[in-house]
Design brief:
The structure is a single chain. Helix content is 42%, strand content 24%. It has ten helices and seven strands. α3 crosses α4 and α6 packs across α7. It starts with a helix and ends in an 8-residue tail after the last helix. Bound molecules: zinc ion. The site of zinc ion has 6 residues, from loops. Zinc ion binds next to loops.
């Protein structure tokens, strides 16, 4: 059985234990779901589905138990730099809490330091911490901005999230443009129109259409 699971399985046993998800309960729930649909849960293709799906959710929903201090891991630097730091096009995948279907897209993050900067590779990790939860896009946007504000105490922070939602694309009357944009602004980005505009110009420059 191990072999059957391995092909799409990126998690070690240790990862599974650490993320606090009740794996057996999840497997039972997926079995129940398959039965409720009226499918034969013992047929070849579905036999190991509860196990696979449980492990998949353990990965996709691993953001609840991330220790932010361990994640930042000393990548905070004192620096006298007070221009805008911009990281655009951070890819993310999340699950909407209303339908447990994926929404995905890009996050753009900017901040103006006030003595402290964060190692560049940490910003996508912060995005993942909030994306790998049951989410709504508006809250995820706000959480990323608030986290950076509290961590860096910058002069300002701005987060824009562009995403497509499978729950609106797959269901009912299919909407061709299911793209949604949300933003959260603090400090200089909220108070100063020119700063906000500089950020928005920057992220729209050369932007390619959101693809899935
Ligand atoms: Zn939804």
């Amino acid at each position: 059985m191990k072999e059957l699971l391995d092909f799409d399985d990126n998690l070690s046993e240790q990862d599974l234990e650490q993320n606090g998800i009740e794996n057996e309960l999840l497997e039972d729930a997926i079995s129940q779901l398959i039965k409720a649909i009226g499918e034969n849960s013992q047929r070849e293709g579905l036999k190991y589905t509860p196990k696979r799906v449980a492990r998949m959710y353990s990965e996709l929903l691993s953001g609840y138990h991330v220790d932010p201090v361990a994640m930042i891991n000393g990548a905070l630097f004192n620096i006298t730099y007070d221009e805008m730091v911009l990281v655009r096009d951070i890819e993310f995948y999340s699950l909407c809490e209303h339908h447990i279907l994926p929404f995905m897209g890009r996050v753009h993050v900017a901040y103006i330091p006030d003595g402290k900067v964060l190692g560049l590779s940490k910003i996508p990790r912060i995005v993942d911490m909030y994306a790998r939860r049951l989410q709504v896009q508006e809250r995820m946007t706000r959480q990323i901005a608030d986290f950076l504000r509290d961590l860096l105490r910058p002069q300002g922070v701005a987060v824009v999230v562009e995403a497509v939602h499978l729950c609106s694309m797959m269901r009912g009357v299919k909407k061709h443009d299911a793209r949604m944009t949300t933003s959260a602004m603090h400090g200089a980005f909220r108070a100063n129109l020119a700063t906000r505009q500089e950020f928005l110009d920057n992220i729209s420059r050369g932007a390619s259409p959101l693809q899935i």
